[in-house]
Amino acid sequence: MKFAGLIVMPAGFFLSIAALVLFPGAAPRTAFILCALAVEVVGLIVAVRGHMENRESDAGDSR
Amino acid sequence: MTPASGTPSLSDSVIVLNLLLLLLAPLAIAGVALVNVGLGRSRSAAQALLGNMVIVATALIGFALVGSTLAGNIDGPGHILHLAGKPWNWLGEGPLLLKGIGNASVEAQLEILFEFLAVAMASIIPWGSGADRLRLSAGCAIAAVLSALVFPVLAHWVWAGGWLAQLGINFGAGAGFLDPAGAGTVHLLGGLSALAVVWIAGSRRGKFPKEGFATAMPGHNAVYILFGCLIALVGWLGFNLAGASLWLRAPLAALPVTALNTLLTAAGALAATYTVTRVRFGKPDASLCANGWLAGLVASSASAAVVSPVPALLIGIAAGIVTPLLVEALELAVTIDDPSGAITVHAAGALVGLIAAGLFAPQPGQFIAQLVGIATILGLFLPLVYLLFKVLDRFIPFRVDQDGERIGMDLHELGGGAYPEFVIHRDDSYR
């Protein structure tokens, strides 16, 4: 689950790059980049949820 | 942030000033190191401080051997990708092993020196989060990866004429990504690396028992923590002023206001954290106040050179309110064991400063540039460092074994404690 969240996060980065290239106007560009950041935040939340599910072991990813 | 070529040169007096400021900057590293040690346990204090030193050494060597080549410098060549009709300068092409650095311009030498100090700072941030369970060899390996591979790429993008620095020229986004003293390049990257380290190393044993609330494991020396904050202020003044002069080419007349803004941001943050902790707990909390102070300094790294004094104070207040609330939320709600509070202080503080710089900077389109910079560091570098650290953990296990954690990192890794005359009591958290 943690990996799933972390895989989503680069998508937000590429969306922000796409916004720079596709939208010359300030308003749509800002809105698109904010959406890109929202995608990253969703990915981060999923990764954090994955961390919380591992809490039972009380000791990290691999132990 | 700055054009890739034709950067104005500095006058002799400004060069001397920059050199003096950069000589102050290591105090920021020393301050953060002291805070890290104080917030850890007494049985790991010597290992923690020695760890900070060897990590700084590893980072400096890693950056000298590999990183400086990838980082390049403002007027130097870079690898450019042409996409959508725009040049994307994505990697530096500096001389191998600092060859010919002595013959480079004084400005280039100062910029390299700044990057050396910045990479040392970035590398010690995850160490604080892994306190009391991270092995020395793991700390060095993390520093090597950060200094040789990760930090140089970001430093090139932000400082050395990379594509983030040129967002203004290529896409009309303000003056490009503004980060003169490393809020994003150093602290956001360091804070996210700290998060990756905590995820991989896990929490200290007994921190989150299967039943009940998280176990309180307070720092062992409030004097170290608070004195570290005062020392860090001096170093931060050096970083912020040198960063403004080197990366923004701020005139001499603008530097006193930058210093004033640094002080106001830190003061606002401390006042806000003091108030929040006093309201929440009935008394101000020393370690959270220290975290608030540092978060204000981190926020000032992005904003001090580009805003006026009143916004600087407001930025500090915002950082100071966020810090204690997020430290508490990460520990109690999200079960992240971050002894030094580095994730909050460095990552969240940097986010506050970077966003505020976009809101308060005078250039139109600056907010967009800041958002793209944040999206880049968060969306690209957090997954990258997690992946790299995960692979690294296979070869050099991050976490000490259970026995080492029980007897303390000092005895386990160094064979002797920081306070040999103290009696170490049994720890009730090991149930």
Explain this structure.
The complex is a heterodimer of chains A (63) and B (431). Chain A has one domain. Chain A is mainly α and 63 residues long. Helix content of chain A is 78%, strand content 0%. Chain A is elongated and about 45 Å long. Chain A is built from 2 helices and no strands. With 431 residues, chain B is mainly alpha-helical. Chain B has a single domain, classed as Ammonium transporter AmtB like domains (Ammonium transporter fold, Orthogonal Bundle). Chain B has 15 helices and 2 strands. Chain B has a two-stranded antiparallel ribbon with strand order 1-2. In chain B, α4 crosses α5, α7 packs antiparallel against α12 and α9 runs parallel beside α11. The relative contact order of chain B is 0.16. The mean pLDDT of chain B is 94. Chains A and B meet through α1 and α2 of A and α7 and α13 of B.
Describe the protein's topology.
The complex is a heterodimer of chains A (63) and B (431).
Chain A: H1 2-22, H2 26-53
Helix pairs in contact in A: 1-2
Chain B: H1 12-24, H2 26-39, H3 45-71, E1 78-83, E2 86-92, H4 106-129, H5 136-158, H6 167-171, H7 183-201, H8 222-247, H9 255-281, H10 286-303, H11 309-332, H12 342-360, H13 366-395, H14 402-407, H15 409-414
Antiparallel strand pairs in B: 1-2
Helix pairs in contact in B: 1-4, 1-8, 2-3, 2-4, 2-8, 3-4, 3-5, 4-5, 4-7, 4-8, 5-13, 7-12, 7-13, 8-9, 8-10, 9-10, 9-11, 10-11, 10-12, 11-12, 12-13
